[in-house]
Amino acid sequence: MNKGKILLVGFGPGAKEHMSYRAREAIAEADVVIGYSTYIKLVQELLAGKEVIRKGMTEEIDRCVEAYEQALLGKKVALISSGDIGVYGMAGPTFEVLLQAGWKPDSGIEVEVIPGATALNACAALVGAPLTHDFCSISLSDLLTPWPTIAKRLESAARGDFVVALYNPKSGRRTRQIVEAQTILLRHRSPDTPVAIVKSGYRRRQAIQMTSLAHMADCEIGMLCTVLIGNSATFVQEGLMITPRGYANKYDRLTGEAKSGEEAGRSLSMGLNGWHACVRKQLRDQPERSLRQAADYFAAPLGEILAAIGAAQDEAGDHRAMAFAMEDLAGVLEAAIDWGRLRAVVRTDSGATAELLLDAGDFSRRGDWLNLITPHFHLHVDLSRIASAWFFSQENRQQGLYFLDPQGDALFSLLQIKRDGVFEPAALTSFHQARERFGQPHVAAEEILQAETETDE
Ligand SMILES: C[S@@+](CC[C@H](N)C(=O)[O-])C[C@H]1O[C@@H](n2cnc3c(N)ncnc32)[C@H](O)[C@@H]1O
């Protein structure tokens, strides 16, 4: 008996011109074609003489099982899906069914996945070039995914300034999800952010609405739509939605020459290494700028600012930062007893700040916890959450220690207190001695010079 084969075919958005050559070939070579009835209609003209198995919307796993059973009979089976079959499509469930049934890649039944232009590519092409920079897709369908997971992904995409493509945005039954998505995105993005809603792209009833994030949820949206939401740089001009690639960061728009400090084929001056130098320049130029103000200005965690300062101490003006190892915590706290009264600052994400006056000698350690218990307050710090610890000083403004979590945000800081507007000279000396003793030299990330030519494309 012939060995069967399963062809997992993504046939693109719907129009035959946008089906790949291999997708067309795969359907032609199949004995059996299995698909959701709407998809079968879309490729009808390719199905003459074939066994066609139509399945309903909710029979996804049935389609996979059927494909496997037909392949076991020695047939070539094309399981078809719109767009790309691996994007919210049948490729994943088919492999899951096969693996559960004991199938292995070398067990006789070959499986080929044939890619297609996914809805987000197709819809983007219809409205201009909205995906020219980092983007992500999020499905608003909570049929198989818990809403908190979807909400977390929306929040992360919004924070990360990704262009966002929303799949399965709304159905007759699911009408609130798009409103919730809008609310989450609006927390981080301007209400004027361009939005394109493409219905049935490259199909007979294609319809396009251009709107803004503020008005997105008021538009006509359904299951045949993909919603494309711009990032902070996306603009609409002449009816086209465009996300810049970033050339304006490096090249003069008129002359095409690289801007001062920039070089073709090399990281931007604000690239991985260069941007730390920009932080140091800022702090040199504005010595009064606090660590937190610098973090806000660069929209970066405190840890990045401390690392930037630590990488070249002499370049950050009055700011000095040096990390120390957590094994040395006991030694550092012992030294801090000489710093006198200290201010422990604890900030919550939700905006509350606690400032506690204490002495370093009051701390005690129990397992993973650093505890300080006084009649007025208790402070408990989970040491296992501390990813890095730093000495930080800003000339006559701040001297102390910062303890950061893995994201580089401050868990708490322990700062010296001024008396009559100045730090105690003895406390300052002790701070410098502790930094000398426990501070570790920062290893700056060396830029790896690439021998091959790199393009800016
Ligand atoms: C189950 S997903 C299938 C995605 C498909 N595998 C792909 O790669 O495009 C169905 C969703 O894809 C989007 N979609 C698929 N085809 C589309 C088209 N032609 N125009 C607009 N959106 C489309 C819609 O958001 C729809 O709710």
Question: Features of this protein?
Answer:
457 residues; alpha/beta; Cobalt-precorrin-4 Transmethylase, domain 1; Methyltransferase, Cobalt-precorrin-4 Transmethylase, Domain 2; 3 domains; five-stranded parallel β-sheet; 22 strands; 26% helix; elongated; binds S-adenosylmethionine
Assign the CATH topology of the largest domain.
Heme iron utilization protein-like fold
Highest CATH level, the class of the largest domain: Alpha Beta
Give helix % range.
25-40%
Strand fraction: 25-35%
How many individual β-strands?
Answer: 22
| Broad shape | elongated
Number of domains: 3
Secondary structure elements and their pairing?
Layout lengths: L4 E6 L10 H9 L2 E5 H6 L8 E5 L4 H13 L3 E6 L9 H10 L9 E5 L4 H9 E2 L5 E5 L7 H13 L3 E5 L9 H10 L7 E6 L7 E6 L12 E5 L5 E3 L2 E3 L31 H12 L5 H7 L4 H10 L7 E6 L4 H8 L4 E7 L5 E7 L4 E3 L2 E5 L4 E5 L5 E7 L3 E7 L5 E7 L8 H14 L19
Parallel strand pairs: 1-4, 1-5, 2-3, 2-4, 6-13, 7-8
Antiparallel strand pairs: 8-11, 9-10, 9-11, 12-13, 14-20, 15-16, 15-22, 17-18, 18-19, 20-21, 21-22
